[in-house]
Every structure is written in C-alpha cells, then in structure tokens.
Amino acid sequence: MSTISRRETLVWVGAALAGPWAVTAPEPAFAQETPGLWKELSFAPINAPGYGTDPDLVKPATPWPLTLSEDQRAMLRIAADLILPADERSPSGSALNLDAFIDEWISAPYPDQQRDRWLILSGLVWLDAESNARFHHGFAAAGDSERRAIFDDVAFKGKIKPGYGRPAFFFARLRNLMLGGFYARPEGMKDIGYIGNTPMLAYPGPSDEALAHLNTALAQMGIKPVA
Amino acid sequence: MAQHKPGKTETFEPDVVIVGSGAGGGMAAYVLTRAGIKVLILEAGRDYDPVAEAAMFKWNYEAPLGGASTPDKHFGFYDATANGGWEVPGEPYTNAPGSTFRWWRSRMLGGRTNHWGRHVPRFGPYDFKAKSRDGLGTDWPISYDDVAPYYDRTEKLIGVYGTNAGLENHPDSSPGILHTPPKPRVTELMIKAGANALGIPCVPARYAVLTKPIDHPHAPRQACFYATPCGRGCGIGAAFQSTTSLLPMAVGTGKARVVTNAMVSRVVMGENGKAQGVEYFDKDGATHLVKARVLILAASACETARLLLNSKDGGHPQGLANSSGQVGRNLVDTTGTNVSGHIPALENRPRYNEDGAEQAHLYIPWWLYQDQAAGKLDFPRGYHYEIGGRFGPPGSGLSLGSMEDGYGASLKEDARRYYGAQLSFTVRGEMIPNPDSYCEIDPEVKDKFGIPVLRFHWKWSDHEYRQIAHGMETAKEIIERLGGHVLGGPLPKPEQAIAVGGWIIHEVGTTRMGASASDSVVDQFGRAWDVDNLVIADGGVFSSNAHKNPTLTIMALAWRSMDQLAGRMRRGEV
Predict the structure, then answer these.
(1) Within the 20-59 window of chain A, which residues sit less than 8 Å (CB to CB) from chain B?
(2) Which end of chain A is more exposed for a tag (fewer CB within 10 A), N or C?
(3) Which residues contact A119 (CB under 8 A, 6 or more apart)?
(4) Residue B85: CB partners within 8 Å, gap ≥ 6?
C-alpha cells in the first residue's frame, strides 16, 4: 500500500456519490478537515475477471478470488457483531458471514467495489491506528468498551467527533454494506419481515391489520381513507 | 425461444426481411405471418429463452455482490439483458463535446422487451396533436381515432391489467379488454389518499402483465403468480415479452424464420429505387446478403437511424430515406427524476406480502390539461408519476431512507422500523424535440464489425426543466401532506435533478412520420417517403413523445403499418 493525494481521494468519494445526472457530486463535508490518523492510502488494483456480460443466471458464480487477510476478516467479524449483534429475532453479523460478504464485495473488479475496497481497507488501517493511539493495542486486541468508544465517535449522525469526518464516512459505508448483506440473507429477511417470492393464485392485497393501521394514520392526518 | 428453433434458412425465401425482434419487429412478424406473408427476422443478439434462462426465483444473496448493478450487468445480476446495457462490448457510441446521452441496448432475441418496465398507458387525442394545442414541435399525421382500434387489439394480444378511469386525454379501452388489476398495496393507498386530498388523481396503472391466462397453441401464457421480479424475464409468460408471445406465435405459423447473431450493417439498394435487401455480419464477422420484396426496420429508433445513415451511396449521399435531412433528428427521450420521502406513519407497519404483480398497481396520470390550456403553468407538456414504496425483497442495498444510525441493538430496531416506510415518486415527462438533440454518424469511430457508430448531441430546454421542477415540488407536497419529509435534503435544481438524456430508455423520433416528404422520414404507415418498399416499425417513427411510456404505441403503430403493408402486398402494389 502507498499514499495518494487528498484530491484523488475526493475524486473517488465524489464518484461514489454520483448518480445518473450530468452534474458532479459536491465535495463531501469533511473535505476541508485535517485527516488526523486517517491515512490516504492506495492499494494494488484488482485485476481479476468479472462475471462478464452474459453470465449463467440460473447458476450464479463469483469468479474473482477473495483478497482479505485473516486479520482483516477477523476485524470485520468483530465490527459485524458490534454493528449487528445477535438478538432474539436474528443471529449476529459474523454468524451470517458478513466478513465473507465484504471480502467478496471489495475483491470484485468493478469500479464501485474498488472504491469501497479503498474505503474499507483504509478504514481498517484507521481502526487499528485509532485503537493503538488510544489504548496501545490494535482493534482486535481491544476490549468491548474500547471498541465501542471508537465506534461512538463515528457512528451517530450529528454526533460525529470533530475531525472524524473521514472515519465516519467509512463507518457509514461499512454499516450500509453490512445491512445489505445481513437482511438479504434468509435469517435477515425473516427478521425484517419480508414475506413473498411465493407463487399464489390470487393476490390478497393488504391484510385487515395493515389496512386498519393505514386508515388510522390517515385519519390522524385528517385525510379521507380510500380503502 | 428454444421450443421454436428456426429451421434451415437456406431453403426459405422470405417475402419480407425484418430487422429486430423486440416490440416492433416481433409485432411486425406476428401480423405479417398471420396474413400469410413469409418473414425472415434478423436479430443482432443471441438466441434467448426466458423459460430456461430467467432466474425467476433466485434470491439476491445467491448472486455475486447480492445481485448489485455492475458494469457487466447494469440493472443487476439477474436482469434479463444479455451482452448489453449502457454499453455493448465492442459496439461503442460517442457523445459530442458538451453532450451526455446514454443508450441502452441489448443483444438478445426479443431485445429490450425481455426486461422492460411494462407500463403501457395509451397516448390520447391531445398527444397526437400537441402542436395544435401549444404551437411546439409537430403534430402527428394521424389522430387518436386512427390508432384506437390498434390499441385495443394490441392490449388484447399482449395482455394488460388496468381499468378504464375515464380521465381527460387518458383514453379508455374497449369493454372486455383489460385484465383485472391487482389490489393496491398500503403504500399506494396512502399515496392515493394524500394525492386525492390535494386534488390529484391516482388510479389503477396499466401494465402488460396478465391476471388471467391467455391460451394459444404456440404461446400459452399463464396468469401472474404474484412472485419474482418481472425484469428478470417471465418464464410463465405472464409479463409480456416478445420471446414468449409474438415470436413463437409468428414462428408457429410456419411462415417465419429467425436468424440470431445477425448484425445488419446496411440496406442494399436495387437499380429500380427500391431496397433490394440487407447485408449483415454473423458472429464470425462473415457478411451475408439477404433479399426480399419488402424491408422492415425495427432495430430501435437510434439503431434504425444509424442503419439508414450508414446505407448512404452515390445516389443517397446523406444516407438512405433521408432526402428530408430528418434521419437522426428530433431525438427525444422522456424526462425523469425521482423524489422519495420518509413517512413516519409507515414506520413499523404490519407486515404482509407486498410483492403483488411486482409492478405498480396504482399511478398518478397527468391531470393539469385545463391549467395548461389556460396558460396557468410555465411549461407546456405533462408528466406522470410512477409511484412506489413497499416491503421489497432485500438486496445488497437495503433501503431504509438513510434513516439508519448508530450501531448495535438500536440499528436492528432501525432496520425493522424504517423498512417499507418510504414512498417514491418517479417523474416521467414529455420532452419536446429541439434542434440540438440528435444523432449522427461519428466520422471516425467504428464498432467491432467495422460499422461506423452513432455520435449523440443532447440539450434540454427550459420546457423540460420547469416541468421537472413542478414534478418535484408536487411530489414534495404529497409527501409532506402525509406527514413525511423528502429524502436527501432540499430539492435540487431541475438542472441537477433531471436524468441525463437516454436514461429513461424512451428514445424515439429519429425517423419521424409526417404528412409531407419534405419534413419527415416516413408516412403515417411507417413507409419511407424515399423508398417504397422500406417500412419502419420501431419508435423512430414517433412525431412527438408524450410522457406515456412508448412501447404500447410502438406495437400499435407497427400493427397498423403491417396491416396496410399486407394490403399493398396482396394487391401487388409493392
């Protein structure tokens, strides 16, 4: 790994924020911040093949090799269990192999995933640096309260510790990826309450309970229900 | 379409060659074969069979990257697009400096009908005579009444759910044609209630999805079973696509043959001012010439324009069928943007199956025709909203309206609270043709076959920007009336919010029809003014592009043109 310029970083972040619009995305809010312990790193590009423009859809396969080290995977498992801990409705993030999901994601040869690779790998380096500076050991060796102290500084909107804009951007992206990986799994779908993808002869529409909930809400807004 | 493999073409002498197998080409083949005419369909892409290839029931987590969009599969891993998308390998296009236009293509049998949105509103009487109403653009050489019988026939053939809402310039279908629409979801009922409270209509949408089966010996189609995303392709034939209906119906008559991997490069003219045939490249790069009495071009608006422009010769220095200079001109797309809102009243709402027919069950049609006629609005043409919001199948990006925060137990509660609590308003508006939006042949760049490629020029006008601004503001009013807030902060300026040209994939107008050979490419039946035996049957023929999604109108016009062509052929006039 080596360092890259601040400008290059912002170009990458901007590209990640861009949509189907001709106008370039604005600079992220943290552009003017001092990076602190966050280092502008660059990593060897992924040159593995993608799945191509005409893959077999019935037998999906991921052709690119995974690239994370065991240490990096271990950090992601720790983060996954802090971000999405087990409870009575679903297992923990690591139990649903979110470290493997992230590894597949950031090892993919596509531009969006390569940007995430830069962000996630840089973020893991930062997590260790932050833990070392505060507690004199890396993130994996840190205790639960130590890890939470770091997360608490970057995880909550409106409460980001001043100067921590870059780590907070990393954290938000990691959380977003983990939410996607978690709730797309059968255990996650069951938790969140997705019901469907089951053939039926007729579509029943909303349940009585769902309709009553809607109509109560509309009545409170002074709006006439339509069903 | 494995069950209807083409037979040997060597012994098959077609009366008509059709370029393209999507909405226009499929319809042309269906109508002509029913009239006893032998057709050869040339498709640039590979053979495709949704029954065998559509990964209907696969879960997102089973796909690489949870099914996310990538440069290999722009609409996600499972999307029914083969070797295509915003880029096609080895087949570039270019943009003139300062222009941004994106061109979606696919390279597969059935073309873009395999994955399309299937929203099929009719154009209305105003839409065919828009210039007469506001002085802009051009009128069509035909009126709604000319097309109405073909809308009926097309809807009956392809199968459309919806209702007759009896609204101004949103024509009803004849009785007995529409299939019963599915019951609206909670989110749709909420939007309807909020919109109605502001005097805005919200009615059952029309989608080309069957809710009762259609029997046919060569193309039996089942009713929707209310599962699986339509964009992956529909192996049961409920969601209309050319490969499960028009093409097997045509081939089943014994009068049609299909050649795939046939990239047509030019029209070859005969001595008599008539088209003699077309030349195509096979996948090995070898060229073939096929001849026929009549040529139908249905390669898609821009691909057909490219073909005509690339068919220039000594007698046609500007390109074929282009004495008017209009080929490639008048390129329009639909305007588009999205406004989403978070609705607190929808948080933690009771779960139930919201798959439905996967597509929208309700929509908001354009409703301010009278205000426009009275000069009360600062933009001349309308838009509609395709509305959304539901408990959708989670994928790599879980949409919680950016409401998720923190980590740990509270984050899991956030996911449960905010899932299904957003409403979306997709604005789809009419663009008026302008002299700065067109396609032409790039003087330098060629594709992998050596065929010169298209170069696009693009510019929106204030008509579109003001319309988009109105669409965003009105969506915001509905969201706020429902106690919600718009996601993403203050509304952006329309110049920032409008999707780039081509993004809505409604590009039409490049070979427009008209009343005179001087300012149009084809007549009202798609016949090239300059070449009597060349008929265009794709979206290129549109004189204007109402905000209503174009595919139904492409098919209705193709049917009308083919009826007229079959008559001419029967009478020996061509």
Answers:
(1) 20-23, 50-55, 57-58
(2) N
(3) A12, A16, A169, A170, A173
(4) A53, B73, B74, B75, B104, B105, B106
Asked if A206 and B186 come within 8 Å (Cβ–Cβ), the reply is yes
d(CA B528, CA B532): 6
Q: Which of B293, B304, B290, B302 is nearest to B257 (CA)?
A: B290
Rounded distance between C-alpha atoms, residue B475 and residue B477, angstroms: 5
Inter-residue contact B196 to B213 (CB < 8 Å):
no
Q: How far is CA A183 from the centre of its chain?
A: 12
**Contact in structure between A118 and A12 (CB atoms under 8 Å):** yes
Please identify which residue in the block is written with the tokens 């599962």: B227
* Rounded CA separation B569/B563 (Å): 10
Domains and CATH numbers, chain B: 1-162+238-332+433-460+506-574 (3.50.50.60), 169-204+335-429+461-497 (3.30.410)
Whole-angstrom Cα distance, residue B453 to residue B130? 32
Both tokens of A108, joined, read: 């993919």
Tokens matching residue B452? 């010169």
Q: How distant is the Cα of A220 from the closest Cα of chain B, in angstroms?
A: 10
Residues B108 and B83 sit within 8 Å (Cβ to Cβ): yes
- List the structure tokens of B86: 């915003």
Q: In this prediction, what percent of chain B has a pLDDT beyond 90?
A: 96
State which amino acid sits at residue B82: A
Parallel, antiparallel or unpaired: strands B452-457 and B256-259: unpaired
Instruction: Report helix, strand or coil for A148.
Output: helix
Chain B residues in contact with A184 by the CB 8 A cut-off are: 59-61, 66, 394-396, 398
Q: Nearest-CA neighbor of B545 among B330, B231, B263, B310?
A: B330
- Say if residues B300 and B91 touch (Cβ distance below 8 Å): no
Nearest Cα residue to A114 out of A191, A186, A44: A44
Q: What is the pLDDT at residue B4? A: 44
Domain boundaries, chain A: 2-220
The rounded distance, in Å, linking the Cα atoms of A160 and A164 is 7
Element (H, E) at A101: helix A98-106
Question: Which of A183, A196, A199 is nearest residue B354 as measured by Cβ atoms?
Answer: A196
Helix orientation angle between B551-570 and B144-158, rounded to the nearest 10 degrees: 100
SS3 state at A146: helix
pTM (2 d.p.) = 0.96
Q: What mean pLDDT, rounded, does chain B reach?
A: 96
CB of B416 less than 8 A from some CB of A: yes
B446-472 pLDDT, tens per residue?
Answer: 999 999 999 999 999 999 999 999 999
Q: Do B419 and A192 touch (CB under 8 A)?
A: yes
For the CA atoms of B436, B438, B440, B443, the dihedral, rounded to the nearest 10 degrees, stands at: 40
CB contact at 8 A, B252 and B218: yes
Buried b (16+ CB within 10 A) or exposed e, A4-22: beeeebbebbeebeeebbb
Polymer length in residues for chain B: 574
User: What is the model's pLDDT at position A30?
Assistant: 81
Instruction: For residue B175, count CB atoms less than 10 angstroms from its CB and return exposed for 0-12, middle for 13-18, buried for 19 or more.
Output: exposed
Specify the amino acid at residue B139: D
3-state SS of B305-320 is: HHHHHCCCECCECCCC
Query: Which of B62, B226, B395 shows the shortest C-beta gap to A203?
Result: B226
Residue carrying structure tokens 């060229």: B287
Q: How far apart are CA B523 and CA B499, in angstroms?
A: 32
The tens digit of pLDDT for each residue in B348-378 reads 999 999 999 999 999 999 999 999 999 999 9
- Average pLDDT value over all residues in chain A: 91
User: Could you give the CA distance from residue A127 to residue A150 in angstroms, rounded to a whole number?
Assistant: 8
- Could you give the CA distance from residue B13 to residue B39 in angstroms, rounded to a whole number? 8
Task: Provide the 3-class DSSP secondary structure of residue B333.
Answer: coil
For residue A43, pLDDT beyond 90: no
Residue whose tokens read 């962000």: A119
